[in-house]
């Protein structure tokens, strides 16, 4: 339902989805096929609603960590272990905050509405305090491998059109991630708006050359060769599409961005593969 209020075009969400009943209302990894076939780097407000931003601070004084988070269920978000190194207290009061339902990075939770240049408005973002941080037990600071962390939220997420989880697994997945044209989404250093793009995954030998890792490259990481060189925040989601009945059905999470590498005239994205960590994620996000 669209309503004109004080000269602004406001999209009103009439139905309230709450608690456990809300989960049944939503399909994880929700996608709209019309958004897939575009070269735009800016998402629509309701596109990829599992993407948020990691903040640090308290009492309305927050620092943007320049890291994205990905919603995996009503109490947990996923990001990189590198992104949470600054948080000394890992349990109880972490000073970490997940800002969810955010489309424009410059918006504030105090904003009732966030509007673009076309006067299209959406609800402001919502803050969720993080009470526990679990880093992957095999996270290796020397090699960078297994760069994953699960963040538990203080209270269950209230699902809306703008805040929903991604699927963690597809119904049928390819054996290899090499030579796959995959979608990614998160926030970046080019625009305040939630962004997206396409990246072609490459072989490990090619990845070594692109990142100048001639001797060693982490076993559970992979490289993406993006169409555009825009540098996205760590924690951005690399996603594949689950196809059912010859139709794109949903996005599922493949990897999280851990760093960008400039080499010559190209930018390479280095991702942490989450497929081998799914059992750890499941066990620690119940």
UniProtKB/TrEMBL annotation:
Protein name: Serine protease easter
Pfam (any one): Trypsin
SMART domains to which the protein is assigned, alphabetical: Tryp_SPc
Signal peptide: 1-24
One record GO biological process: proteolysis
Domain Peptidase S1: 4-286
Keywords: Hydrolase, Protease, Signal
One GO MF term: serine-type endopeptidase activity
Source organism of this protein record: Drosophila rhopaloa
Entry superkingdom: Eukaryota
